[in-house]
Design a protein that fits this description.
- By secondary structure, the protein is α+β, with helices and mostly antiparallel strands.
- It has 5 helices and 5 strands.
- A 5-stranded mixed β-sheet has the order 2-1-5-3-4, sandwiched between helices.
- The radius of gyration is 15 Å and the shape is globular.
- Bound molecules: FE2/S2 (inorganic) cluster (2 copies).
- One FE2/S2 (inorganic) cluster (FES) binds next to loops.
Length: 154
């Protein structure tokens, strides 16, 4: 076990865990941030996606010892009021079905739009290809990303 000081959603948090503990379990089990979901556990589904320094990462495969000074953002920290342009677009397009994959989808979409505010259809498909939705909400996800892109560039 070892003590790690992490920066999560703008706050300093301390955990005493095995250094190889995946960030996902630190978030969910040690810090109670259960918005980030467990799907496959092997970086294949995207359900556990969070940001580290603005980049989308699969928290199920990120040992806590590698986070260091990195700023971690989870779905809970995306916006204080839950009104990030991507979240608004998700509501407007009524994207979720069961909802399980959606936090990961939104974190991947927000990272994409931060790096590329005007993505083409192909760029959206490539950026989102690692996020699986068993309910098949892909068409609405794409529409919402387009809408968020237009709104944030308006
Ligand atoms: S749970 Fe991490 S990618 Fe599936
Ligand atoms: S909304 Fe059900 S898994 Fe995506």
């Amino acid at each position: 076990m070892a003590v790690f000081k992490l920066k999560i959603n703008g706050k300093s948090r301390e955990v005493d865990v095995d250094p190889f503990t995946p960030l996902l379990w630190v978030l969910r089990d040690h810090l109670g941030l259960v918005g980030t979901k467990f799907g496959c556990g092997i970086a294949q589904c995207g359900a556990c996606t969070v940001h580290v320094d603005g980049n989308a990462v699969r928290s199920c495969q990120m040992p806590v010892q590698l986070i260091g000074e990195g700023e971690v953002t989870t779905i809970e920290g995306l916006s204080e009021e839950g009104d990030h342009p991507v979240q608004k677009a998700w509501l407007e397009q009524d994207v979720p079905q069961c909802g399980y994959c959606q936090a990961g989808q939104i974190m991947s979409a927000t990272a994409l739009l931060k790096q590329n505010p005007n993505p083409t259809d192909e760029e959206i498909e490539t950026a989102m290809s690692g996020n699986i939705c068993r309910c098949g909400t892909y068409t609405r996800i794409k529409r919402a990303i387009k809408s968020a892109s237009q709104n944030q560039n308006a």
